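Lecture 7 notes. Example A: sequence first, then its structure tokens.
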Amino acid sequence: MAKSYIIVLLMCPFTIISCWIIDPEQCNPGFVRIYQWPSAYASLHIPKYTVQIINEAWHVKGVYDVHVSCPDFASTTLINPNVFRRIDLGNCLLDDGRIISPGEVITFEYSNILPYPFTVTSFKCS
């Protein structure tokens, strides 16, 4: 599919023309990336996984109200609910909905027999 852009021309008071390109996909969920890997073992030799969620949306001031698909998520170790918490069946909130700046990394660990297939479902740009 071809990518479309909206071009906005602005006149400065000194008759210099500026051209800004605005990407209509600036809040695409693909700009917030989720990485996870096995990192250790919890009690009873249950695998522990480290999760890093990174805001790679460099063209905005930040993202907030980041929701992650987390079907049947459970952990045998406690996760700080201000960092990651389930708010509904299959819907988790990241960093208590606060603004996450470009390049900022949110990290947490959980433990379960198998890793969960986390995906970003929505967020808002600031």
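Example B, a different protein, same format:
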Amino acid sequence: MARAGAALVRLPRLALHGRVVSAGSVSFTIEGLAPWTRLGTRLLLEGAAGEALPGEVVALRDGLATALAFAPLEGIGIGAAAHLAPPAMLAVEESWLGRVLDPLGRPLDGHGPLRPGPLPRSLRTPPPAAGTRARLGPRLDLGVRALDAFATCRRGQRLGLFAASGVGKSTLMAMLAAGAACDVVVLGLVGERGRELREFLEDDLGPEGLARAVTVCATSDSPALMRREAAYAAMTVAEHFAAAGAQVLLLMDSVTRFAMALREIGLAAGEPPATRGYTPGVFAELPRLLERAGPREEGNAGSITGLFTVLVEGDDHDEPVADAVRGILDGHVVLDRKIGEAGRYPAIDVLRSLSRTVPGCLGPEERRLMLRARRILALQAEMSDLVRLGAYRAGTDPAVDEAIRLGPRIEAMLAQAKAERGTVDSAFAALAAALEPSHAGGAA
């Protein structure tokens, strides 16, 4: 028996592999592995120079597996071998703070390899069960007056930042990363311009902000799988720190590019295009990602406060991705190009921005101030054309006169330099000062 056991040990282990039977610009088809694969199974594809190219199965039909790669497919030919690979995992560790990595856990900052943690985490995990999930925590200082006063956020809340390109979205994210009251910041940069990565980290975020942040980046030239995986990897890193009891701020830029990557993958897998070319799988996957943010299970003090940017194409805030994301999240913040063109930054349109948790985190006096300021700004916007044309005569309507006097003071209070920091209390103190009658009379 001993000799038989020794002989069995010396036998070569069973190795499953298939071969490529067709390849395109983004996908390839493998035969021989379909019975042992599932959707999402990881593969290693042998390149022409012997390198291992990671991929993932995205469709199964007629005994063949369709897969996409995490890198360009140049050099892959018919007959190339494909092997099964371990599932997607990230072994997050505390030493990752201050580091920049790609979605596969490889360093991008040139500071050496990342030390793995003892417990690898799957990139695909379900959100906490709704019945055992903790409630939202106390209000959170975001450090931006316009948000703290008009879209007050609570720990574990999820907000969407809706903006067209070039409206100051990246600068606002840097202000949040540097000024929010949290323990850890996780940045998920999905499809960002490669040129802007170092500028954002070194100039906007700075050494102090970078020291408490983990950045996961897949640039715009990355394959669709890498861009999609960047969102999952950032969420997995955030879940690791939240499970340890930390207050995590997750900033993801952008959900739209994540949806675009899902659309590319779905089309390559044979899904039919639906709304504006987006496949049905996109709208099934969005809540699976976004619902993972928020409070943890009851008894765990950690939480993930998520701010997810949405690129609105052509300033259309009702396009499919924006509409779907707005229905999933706990509020939305709108950045308006006209406000930025007028020179007020951050260019947040407070009248179109909303936090659904405001009733649970504002006191009676704070709520009164916020509602009064909203009414004044709304009336000022309504009467602006008449005032500009000289069609309104002062003294005709006291409410309009008040809006003309106080509106500019509120706008001045909303303006904030990138280096300024604040709290919810200081934001409401500034709003109260802007609404004081004595100040209004002096301004008049």
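Note on Example B: Confidence is low (pLDDT under 50) at residues 440-444. The chain has three domains: 16-84, 89-356, 365-435.
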